[in-house]
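look at this one:
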Amino acid sequence: MAFLDMREPVAATAQPLFPVSFTGSRPVADPVPGEMVGFTEQEWDVILLARRDRMSSLHEPTRLARLSAWLFGGGVARQLADPRLEALRRLAVQAWHNGYAVPNSAIHAFKAAGFNLDQLELMLASIAAGRSSRTGRASA
């Protein structure tokens, strides 16, 4: 039987795997020999940029969206050229919007792109810390 200490607020006890700050600095994890745990600088950039992406960026733009972008200016959501980074971006966008409630299909695409479960945990915990610091409360 498990025991949950309710004397302390959840936000104070919810800590990511590594100390993380999304206020401009990139999180860095100590690498484990023989295992890839963290992300490269470019991958952290993708995760940070995904914070501003809308959920609609995960869908292919319609003809009307492309036409209005051409007529009135503005941009159309485009995918990243690297499929590995695109899988990372898609999962990060969903995590920024929904917290830990990301679809299994995004997790499978993330793993198929060559990432592992340790990286998934690191990214989700880091994003959760960034979400809670942005709103001033813990998010799940």
